[in-house]
Amino acid sequence: MVERNIEEAQKDKRAYPLELERLEGLLKSLEDKKEEKKRRIEELERERRTKEGELELEKERIKRSQLRLLEVKTNKEYQALLKEIEWAKELNSQGEEVVIKILEEIDQLNDDYKYVKERAEKERGGIEGDIEKAKEQMVQVEKDIAKWRETNEEIIKELDPRLLKRYNTIKEKRDGIAIVLVKNEVCQGCYVNIPPQIYNEVQKNLEIILCPNCNRILYWETSE
User: Fold this and answer.
1) Do residues 218 and 202 make contact, with C-beta atoms less than 8 angstroms apart?
2) 209 phi-psi bin (left φ>0, alpha ψ -120 to 50, beta other)
3) Could you tell me where the beta strands, DSSP code E, fall in the chain?
4) What class, spelled out in words, does domain 2-157 have in CATH?
């Protein structure tokens, strides 16, 4: 039973770092989503400023072109300059539409960012709580392993040397587990059914009985 406890605790010990990695991954995912929205907003703001700067330059060019209308000498030059001004105004109008779309996207992203940020802050508390719990369980499992190993050593000290040698041989061959519980006629080491007669002998606790399949030492709990 003690060995089984140690084995289960060792499994937990190996599992907790993976659980911590998973939880920390969730936190990172929340932060990444938030930062992704923030970066996109910043990109759009830069694009907006660039577009607005271009629009201002284009407006200045239109003003200069309109002033040149007063200076042209021929109708041909006048018509050509008018077309240039109209074309510039059309481009400006398109540019303004682009800026409006950028502003609309920024507004939407700001709403999304606010939602993601609030959700991240809400979920962070729960995840951080789970991380602390997992760390506490890691500490506890280390204590449990130390306690059960101490108990196991005390039991081994009381064993007959020949029995101890036999115990160590089985333990070496069976992944460090030499003694296992038999429950409902099933060996809990290899999970194979044992014959009823052997099961009855195990329940008597009069001699060492081995599992016919995995050769581990079987024991039975009277509380069953």
Assistant:
1) yes
2) beta
3) 179-183, 186-187, 217-219
4) mainly alpha
209-223 in b/e burial notation, b at 16+ Cβ within 10 A?
bbbeebbbbbbbeee
- Pairing relation of β-strands 179-183 and 217-219? parallel
Residue by residue, pLDDT tens for the chain (224 residues) are 566 677 777 777 778 788 888 888 888 888 888 888 889 999 999 999 998 998 898 888 888 888 888 888 888 888 988 898 898 888 888 889 999 999 999 999 999 888 888 888 888 878 888 888 888 888 888 888 888 778 777 777 777 788 788 888 888 888 778 888 888 899 988 999 999 999 999 988 888 899 999 988 898 877 54
Residue range(s) occupied by CATH 1.10.287.1490 in the chain:
2-157
How far apart CA 28 and CA 213 sit, in angstroms, is 48
pTM, rounded to two decimals? 0.48
Radius of gyration for the chain, computed over Cα atoms and rounded to the nearest angstrom: 39
Using an 8 Å Cβ cutoff, are 187 and 214 in contact? yes
- What SS3 class is residue 180? strand
